[in-house]
Amino acid sequence: MITVRGLAKRYRRRRVLEDVSFTVPRGMLTGIQGENGAGKSTLLKCLVGLLKPDAGQIVLDGRVGYCPQDPSLIESLTLTEQFRLFGAGYGLTPDQVADRAGTLMEEFGCARYATTRVDRLSGGTRQKVNLIAALLHEPDVLILDEPYQGFDYDTYQHFWDYTERFRVDGGSVVVVSHMHTEIARFDAMLDLAAGRVTASGRRAKDVVLTDAVLTDRGE
Ligand SMILES: Nc1ncnc2c1ncn2[C@@H]1O[C@H](COP(=O)(O)OP(=O)(O)OP(=O)(O)O)[C@@H](O)[C@H]1O
């Protein structure tokens, strides 16, 4: 579960997030949309602790997998080495990393690049590595910033299948998406504009933060 209340963030005098509040219950797939520069990536970076908000509270339950908009990969490492490094950061054993990375590379169609250096990969394959790195430790909460840029059609479909399974298994997912054709996939959509979010979609009421949610959580 993700709970955000009264989040505010500015860069010097540029106020990007004014007062953002929402919740994403377990088993829910929520999109975030908004025009370029609306603050979507800023919001996600605050969620995962890469940016310190100026005000507000964030509660994330469980392990978090974060896929940044721009892959933060080490160019000179092979995929296997890259995942070993991420795995160590997550506290996984080398055997756990090998097992999990092997499965995910097969699933996302990049196993043949296991011993290829990152700087020799195509843009779409780099993006697969970026996504796999976020999934390696079997997170409970997924925070994905335009994760499918450059994916071929099969991988794109596979991404949505994976996300759907993750959601059905009780995970919480937030995806920044500009793909209006995909809007029906989301349980709810958060529109970010002028530093605030409004919710739409079939489960819009479930992402609106109410005092009841906060009371349930004992806050
Ligand atoms: N480190 C930074 N320092 C100063 N301003 C920044 C910084 N990062 C982002 N900004 C500004 O904050 C605003 C929000 O940026 P952000 O990247 O969060 O938007 P976005 O909604 O993700 O955009 P896009 O759809 O283009 O990815 C923009 O005006 C951007 O120029």
**What's the count of strands?**
9
Main sheet: which strands, in order across? 5-6-7-3-8-9
Q: What about the largest sheet?
A: 6 strands, mixed
Enumerate the spans where pLDDT stays under 50 for 5 or more consecutive residues. 213-219
Helix and strand pattern: EEEHEEHHHEHEEEHH
- Alpha-carbon distance between the two ends: 14 Å
Q: How many individual helices?
A: 7
Secondary structure: helix percent: 25-40%
- The best one-word shape is globular
Task: Give the overall average pLDDT.
Answer: 92
Can you characterise this structure?
Keywords: ATP-binding, Nucleotide-binding. GO terms for molecular function: ATP binding; ATP hydrolysis activity. Pfam families: ABC_tran. This is ABC transporter ATP-binding protein. The longest helix is centred in the last third of the chain and has 16 residues. The protein is α/β, with parallel strands linked by helices and 219 residues long. The strands form 2 sheets. It has a 6-stranded mixed sheet with strand order 5-6-7-3-8-9. Strands 2-1-4 form a 3-stranded antiparallel sheet, with helices on one face. The C terminus is likely disordered. The two termini are 14 Å apart. The protein contains 7 helices and 9 strands; from the N terminus they run βββαββαααβαβββαα. Strand 8 and strand 9 form a beta hairpin. The site of adenosine-5'-triphosphate (ATP) has 11 residues, from strand 2 and helix 1.
